Amino acid sequence: MLALDRVSKTYPNGVQALARFSAEIRQGEIIAIIGGSGCGKSTLLRAIAGLDRASSGAVTLDSEAINSPHAKIGIIFQEPRLLPWLSVADNIGFGLADLPAAERREKVARALERVGLADKAQAWPRELSGGQAQRVAIARALVPQPEVLLLDEPFSALDAFTRRDLQDHLLDLWADTRPTLILVTHDVDEAVVLADRVLVMRPRPGRLFDQIEINLGRPRDRNSPLFENFKRSVLTSLDRSLDRSVPDRDATQGPGQAMWW
Amino acid sequence: MISDAPVLQQTSEPAESAAAPSRLSRYVRPMLGILLPLALALGWELVVWLGWSNGRLVPPPSRVLATIAELARSGELVRHIAATLWRVGLGFAFGVIAGTLFGAISGYWSLARRLFDPTVQALRAIPSLAWVPLFILWLGIFETSKIALIAVGVFFPVYLGVMGAILSVDRKIVEVGHTFRLSGFAMIRRILLPAVLPAYVVSLRVGLGLGWMFVVAAELIGASEGLGYLLLDGQQLGKPAQILAAIVIFAILGKLTDWLIEVGAAPFLRWQDAFGRAKGA
Questions:
Q1: Mean pLDDT across the stretch B58-82?
Q2: Which pLDDT belongs to residue A247?
Q3: pLDDT tens across A147-204, in order?
Q4: A35, A229, B52, B157: least CB-packed within 10 angstroms?
Q5: A80 touches chain B (CB under 8 A)
């Protein structure tokens, strides 16, 4: 279980990016965090990743405090961020440096197979398309088998078709070891396709505004009326989150109850 | 010198009609650089041969070549070249090791940079030849002081190149290192040094150039062998052909060692996605 307890972040210039964000995330749950720009989504993700320290509050994974990058927590960024001087295979194996070479090779080969890039093992990152590069980044993050995988708008730079393809692919990979996924996104469609629970954040300062359980089985049909309903309730909540006159809704309210008005 | 192989693979479909001229130009293109010096040499040879100049102070290429041949026959040439190469090689090695180490440390740890860098920059501002008297007093007139002088000359461009390049490594790439819990020397070795490798090669080449500069200075100051000694000997005995011979050999050796760095580094830089690559060698 990943617990966020009143996590706040104030930058040195006085901007409060995140205010008392609390949430409990079960092992294996898929969470989408959505919100207007400047609502502290990325700040929150970086705090969970241990890349930035929270000004106050605590992030704990199975009651272990997270203050710096942790072996059980992986992260995928908006850009693939592959190391251009390593082959695709070596990029995927980057986090496995401590393993014996044979074991590493085997794991990398399996991961390459799994993301459908076995023929690109020896290619340089510059030879990959955007979608392929992001798949390598996903493989690199998953190969050390993290318990929590953070994704910071991982598909936002891709075209619609590739994005859809990778969303399905991500779910497929997730099913292998079922890590907790925490996905920051701008895309309501993406949030509803992937998440068990959508957390809507409210900007200035960033805080939790609403949460919506997506009670849909998988695989999800993007065209079903139910899917549309969930999309609408997320959109509604998102709209309300940007309206300053609306008070924060208590996060205890049930799933999918945001009103469409 | 970067291999054309990937480029050829990509263009393999238009087949041999495209590959043939590129194979030809692979041999022809490097030859273009030799045209100008060759024309100048032949021109001067002709001028002296026609009697328009006696070529006493500027001997024609044939006389310079004869001098080189003569030095080579007596075994002198090998001895001088070996002495100079040894000094440059050793000085370069020490300079590069120290420059890389300190450059990496100053680039990575900001505290180290604040502590050391101002001092290093101040030392850099001293014309390196100003060290000569001190080095001779400290280290004697023989090899040690010469090698130290060369190492000092090589140190600064390498130090500056490594530090500057590390400071400008993409933060996002460094963050990838952080997420895999790299820090200290692991971060330097696995992320920072590979990232700065292209810039590092450039600073090695600059450093080597300075190494050749300083070996001449060191050998002019006092040596009984070495190409610098040949220069001095030629001046004192009025043998311009010998001076030119030494200069020609410096040019050849300088170019050759520079080329060695380039060729040696090329396999490690194949990953680059850069402007220079796209145009081929």
A1: 89
A2: 54
A3: 999 999 988 888 888 888 888 888 888 888 899 999 999 888 899 989 999 998 888 8
A4: B52
A5: no
Partnered with residue A213 across adjacent β-strands are A197
Domain boundaries, chain B: 1-54, 59-278
For chain B, say whether A81 makes contact (Cβ under 8 Å): yes
Yes or no, beta carbons of B180 and A124 under 8 Å apart: no
- The model's pLDDT over B115-150, given as tens digits with 9 standing for 90+, comes to 999 999 999 998 878 888 888 899 888 889 899 999
Q: Is residue B58 less than 8 Å (CB to CB) from chain A?
A: no
Is B280 at the interface with chain A, CB within 8 A?
Answer: no
More confidently predicted of B106 and A67: B106
Least Cα distance to A131 among A155, A104, A101 occurs for A155
Buried-exposed string A30-65: b where 16+ CB fall within 10 A, e elsewhere: bbbbbbbeebbbbbbbbbbbbebebbebebebeeee
B180 and A68 within 8 Å at the Cβ level: the answer is no
Condensed to tens digits (0 to 9), the pLDDT of residues B219-253 reads 887 778 889 999 999 889 988 889 999 999 999 99
Residue A2 scores a pLDDT above 80: yes
Using CA atoms, how far residue B178 sits from A72, B173, B174, B183, B191, in Å, is 14, 9, 6, 7, 10
ipTM over 0.90: no
CB contact under 8 A, A126 and B273: yes
Residue-wise over A91-113: b if at least 16 C-beta within 10 A, else e?
Answer: bbbbbbeeeeeeebeebbeebbe
d(CA B195, CA A226): 49
Chain A residue nearest residue B175, CA to CA? A51
One-letter amino acid at B281 equals A
Pick B176's closest partner by Cβ from A71, A81, A85.
A81
Looking at the complex, report in whole angstroms how far the Cα of residue A158 sits from the nearest Cα belonging to chain B. Answer: 19
Q: How far is B269 from chain A (nearest CA, A)?
A: 8
Amino acid B173 reads I
Contacts of A69 in chain B (CB under 8 A): 178-181
Report the 10 Å Cβ neighbour count for B176. 22
Domain made up of B59-278: CATH architecture:
Orthogonal Bundle (1.10)
Angle CA(A141)–CA(A147)–CA(A152) in degrees, nearest 5? Answer: 50
Query: How far A7 CA lies from chain B's nearest CA (Å)?
Result: 20
The answer as to CATH 3.30.470.30 being correct for domain A2-83+150-163+170-241 is no
Facing residue for A83 by CB, picked from B173, B181, B272: B173
